[in-house]
Amino acid sequence: MSKLKLASYWAAACGGCDVAILDIHEKIVDVAAVADIVFWPIAVDFKYADVEGYEDGFIDVCLFHGAIRNSEGEHVAKLLRKKSKVMVAFGSCAISGGIPGLANFKQKNDIFYRVYIESQSTQNPEKVYPQTHYAVPEGVLELPEFYKEVKSLSDVVDVDYFMPGCPPTSAQIWAVIQVIASGALPPKGAFVGCENQTLCNTCTRTKTDKKVKKFYQPYQIITDPEKCLLEQGLTCMGPVTRAGCGNQCVSANQPCTGCYGPVDGVIDQGAKYISALASVVDADSPDEADRIISEIADPAGLFYRYGLPGSLLRRAK
After folding, report:
1. What is the pLDDT of residue 22?
2. Is 265 helix (H, G, I), strand (E, B) or coil?
3. Which residues form the NADH:ubiquinone oxidoreductase-like 20kDa subunit domain (predicted)?
4. Same-domain status, 161 and 237
5. How far apart, in whole angstroms, are the C-alpha atoms of residue 121 and residue 46?
6. E strand or H helix at 201
7. Are 94 and 153 in contact (CB under 8 A)?
8. The pLDDT of residue 181 is above 90
9. Are 168 and 203 in a shared domain?
10. Is residue 296 predicted with pLDDT exceeding 70?
C-alpha cells in the first residue's frame, strides 16, 4: 500500500496545534511509516510554490489549524483545499475562530489604533498603518490584507471533518491518524476524535441540585476537588461543551472554558450557556438575579471564548 501524503498548516493561531501533533512523541515515527509529509512549514522547509506545483488532489489529508484573519490565510486555505482530497479543520481556531476570533468584538481600525498607535511597545511617531503595497527601490513590497473580521475555515472553503480542541489532545490526534491510515473515514462533516455528549456527562465530580447564589473567579476561592465546579460558583462551560478532552481542566480543579465547542444540534454555544446559567441562578427577585449575574467577569469573552466567528453574533456591528 502506498504511503499517505499528509499536509499541516497554520493560519491565525498560536502554534499550539503544531506542538500537539509533536506531542504524540515516539508515535511520530509510526506516522512517518504510513505517511509522507508533503507540506508542514513549521517543521519542514516547504514553500507555497511546492504546493502550487502539486496536482489537484495530490495531498491525501490536510490538517488545517488557525482561523482566517487575512488574505494570505484565505489564499493558502483555498490552495490546500484544491490540492487535498480531505480537509480537516484542526482545533478550535479553524472550526469556529478560536481565541483570535475574539477580535470580532472590535473594529479593524480600533485594532490597528491599539497596536500601532497606543501600544507602549510601539514606536510609531508618524502613525503609519500597515499597507498592502509599498514601493521601495528594489520593487513593490506586498503584505496580506488584514480583514475586518476573523473567519472560520468553513467560511472560505469546504471542510470534510472537524477535530475540536485548543489544542486537540495527543491521544485524540493519534487515534484520528490511525483512522485515516486505515481508510475507515466517517461520514463527511463528522467531528472526529471526540464525543457527541457534554463534558458534564463524563465529569466524575459530585453533582447535586445546582443553585448558585454567587459567582467567583478561580483565584477567589479554594475549591472542593470532588464537587461540581458550577455548583461552587465557578463558570464552568461543561454543561454546553462537547466531551473528548479527557476532562483535563476540571481534573486540575479548573473550570472548563469550552474549547471543544458545542455538541451536535447547538448552533450557538454562548447562547446555550446563558440559558444554562439562567437555570442555576438562585435568586428571590429580579434585582438579586441581576446582582448575581453581574459578578460574572467578562461574560462576552467567557461565553464566546472560542466560537464568536462561528456563532449567531459573528462580530460587533
Report:
1. 87
2. coil
3. 14-178
4. no
5. 33
6. helix 199-202
7. yes
8. no
9. no
10. yes
